[in-house]
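Note to self: the last two entries modelled the partners one at a time, which told us nothing about the interface. This time every component goes in together.
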Amino acid sequence: TQLLEQSPQFLSIQEGENLTVYCNSSSVFSSLQWYRQEPGEGPVLLVTVVTGGEVKKLKRLTFQFGDARKDSSLHITAAQPGDTGLYLCAGEADRGSTLGRLYFGRGTQLTVWP
Amino acid sequence: DTEVTQTPKHLVMGMTNKKSLKCEQHMGHRAMYWYKQKAKKPPELMFVYSYEKLSINESVPSRFSPECPNSSLLNLHLHALQPEDSALYLCASSQVAGAPYEQYFGPGTRLTVT
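The predicted structure of the combined assembly is written out below.
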């Protein structure tokens, strides 16, 4: 059972298009992290959202944490070929017994064509 | 500095070999993690160390043996591996005190078992 449902699994778009990736759960997370990973490399942390309803922007990327802290979205405006990669959402569960354990979504493989 | 380093970058080993993967961080983080990642899948947690003590073992086979010699170093000793153990092995670290506990990943070791 996947704690975090991430969609879509694959996304292939043309340069200049906009896109949104979703990460949903029935569980509450104390924080949610978004990573981008290129083939053969480790995931690179893009952003961490902590507060329900929080919106963070990183250039053309906009991240939102749901009010109930159960879901998050990543929106990319005017996608570029350099945005190509595997996008992973990861929720941090309650600290009580899981010591920073991250629950990963399945990932979204994004390909942006020139 | 949010760098986690891993060596070697690539490793090819036979099923009877013994080898070790190394990970190092100098961010003062006191939690360190080993993950295994198959192609186009999210990372799977293997082990968590907190204050140099093993706190989580995700029922990993004994042919994988972790070691945390000090707060900056994490090793993964490999012995009698199987071809299905071929994967990208990722190390990560995070702080222990003070939320959120963002995990920073190293570039990974690409392991091939022949």
